[in-house]
Amino acid sequence: MNTQDADQAPAPKPSLLSALTVYGERRSLIMLALGFASGLPNLLIFDTLSAWLRESGLSLQVISIFSLATLAYSMKLLWAPLVDRTKIPWLTDRLGHRRSWMLVAQAAVMIGLWLVAGGDPVRNLGMMALLAVLVAFAGATQDIVIDAWRIEAAGETHQGALAAAYQWGYRIAIIVAGAVPLILAQQYSWNVSYLVMAALMLIGVAGVLGAPREAQHIVRAINLEGVPSRPGLELPEWLARLSLVVAGAIVLGSGLAGSADILAQGLSAVGQAGAGESLVGAWTSRPWGVFLQVGAVLVGGGLIVLAAFPIPGFRTRPGIYLSAALFDPFIDFFERYHGTAALILALICLYRLADFVLNIMTPFYLDLGFTLVEIAEVRKVFGVAMSMLGVFLGGLAVARFGLLRALLIGAFAGPLSNLVFAWLAIEGAWLPALFIAIGVDNVAGGFAGTCLIAYMSSLTGQGFTATQYAVFSSFYSLPGKLLASQSGRIVESTAAAAEAGGMLGALRGLFAGLPPEAYAGAMEKSGVSPAALGTGYVLFFVYSALLGIVGIILAFMVLARQKPLAPVVQPPEAAAGETSMSSPSP
After folding, report:
1. Cβ distance 524 to 509 under 8 Å?
2. DSSP-derived secondary structure letter, 281
């Protein structure tokens, strides 16, 4: 999926109607079903299961331990090379590499949910925990394969629509998994509830069986020539290397997930419960806890690299295999994008920086004077609808304007939408203004997110699709997490500066006509006047928009260096392929 290798002459830009037809294609409908199957197990384990446990009388401390199962989603990049390289006996020959893996992962999710449905958290808590881990591991594996199939089953111009369809399906599943089990548990029982959820995974199975087979899968060979098999020496080496991988995975996953609970449990197991509690407190403290999390990512990654590093001067099969599995995807990426790889990685990490720093929005709405009910209705109902609209428009833009041009539009959309919040900060608790601000922001976020997913998908190479995309999607938000840790500090420090007078103090006049409920608790919460706190918010949103300039500049640089892929609606060879998709070969 290398956009640099696209040397074909640009095709005419398709009409709006032609671009819209991509959403009616079979691949998009299949992706909707697969997105639903992807979203269902995540929320069932991460959130809904906690309601069952609490209703069964379990303590919050026990319930919080169950959330560790979802670390599998943060660590999935570690076994993505296995998914790229390993065939499923019998199934792979009949369904293809990706579809066979999807089917196995979905079967594991269904069996896990079915067994959870038959369990009792009071009598069999340990078994329930193991089943939660199984479902999370299978769900994360399913995510790896669905992403790989999406990338390999369609060209770049279809990636936007497929990414949009995936997000629609995923968000529908989040709504279903968050509401339907609670209703069924109220009417019948939690056991019936999870049994129905297991049955709903058949939607994903139907998507797999109806999906076209991806292009011929290539497994990159690992050169073991001249390295004799030494079982007696290899077994302890495998154990040592895999122990380092597991340790690194736990530290890495704790950093990516922002949770030190599993590390605290380990410390508690060796008699250091107090140290574990201190670690959890430091891990989640503001604003410096995020630096611990990023440090954990670096340390965990370093342990994994060490585990895969060959022994100098002595070639062994475990060292060769692990180093090839881990390092070859990176080598492939840097070779294909020689001279631009660092620029591309910078774009991925900084593209949505302006969005990621907006982690103080609920306090902002409350400070303005909106009620919790108003915030919930606008954000969770209207906001979700606007986000799905943005996702749709992002996929449409990729199909109509081409991937890189759509990516550039998305780079502008995020920062500009942040300025609407600066306007909201001045307007106060006016409900129509909240609708406008959240609507604009969610449309822009959905648009930019879809374009970024499509772009990351286009960067993967044959044989490494699952691994490379898992790496991109795991690390793209790290810089944003770092800067987001300082958001509250920036608001309050600029508010204090405005309170002291000077240039910033002059901006307090913008808030002279605000109703009394706006920023009413400013003095109590932040030690400044309402007008000064409003000034702090306005300057913060301007700052967040300025951060987006970095992404815009990088997008222009990438657009200049990479050959833009022309938006092709249906060339003859693609049309033939689409026809064959109506009856995919098993």
Report:
1. no
2. H
Separation of alpha carbons 558 and 341, rounded Å: 10
pLDDT band at 579 (very low <50, low <70, confident <90, very high): very low
The answer to whether residues 446 and 389 touch, using CB atoms and an 8 Å cutoff, is: yes
470 CB neighbour count, 10 Å cutoff:
27
Among 34, 24, 19, CA closest to 157: 19
What phi and psi values does residue 165 have, to the nearest 5 degrees? -60, -40
Torsion of CA 459, 461, 467, 469, to 10 degrees: 20
Is 507's pLDDT higher than 80? Answer: no
Sign for the pseudo-dihedral over CA of 187, 188, 189, 194: negative
Other CB atoms within 10 Å distance of the CB of residue 208: 25
Is the separation of the CB atoms in 45 and 108 below 8 Å? no
Q: List, in order, residues 6 or more apart from 39 with CB less than 8 Å away.
A: 169, 170, 171, 172, 173, 174, 177
Separation of alpha carbons 521 and 413, rounded Å:
32
Q: How close are the terminal C-alpha atoms of the chain, in Å?
A: 24
Share of the chain above pLDDT 70, in %: 85
Tokens of 15: 């009409």
Q: Which DSSP symbol is given to 217?
A: P
Residue 133: pLDDT band with limits 50, 70, 90: confident
- Residue 359 phi/psi, 5-degree rounding, is -100, 15
pTM exceeds cut of 0.85: no
What is the DSSP track for 511-532? GTT--TTTTTTHHHHHSS-HHH
**Count of residues making up the chain:** 586
- Inform me whether the pLDDT recorded for 565 exceeds 60: no
Q: What DSSP character marks residue 46?
A: I
How is residue 534 written in tokens? 């409003």
pLDDT at 8: 43
pLDDT given for residue 142 in this prediction: 92
- How crowded is residue 580: how many other Cβ atoms within 10 Å of its Cβ? 12
Rounded CA separation 492/532 (Å): 9
Q: Which helix (H) or strand (E) holds 14?
A: none
| Of 342, 395, 475, 324, nearest in space to 169 by CA | 395
Residue among 175, 216, 130, 163 at smallest CA distance from 40 = 175
What tokens appear for 278 in the block? 């201190």
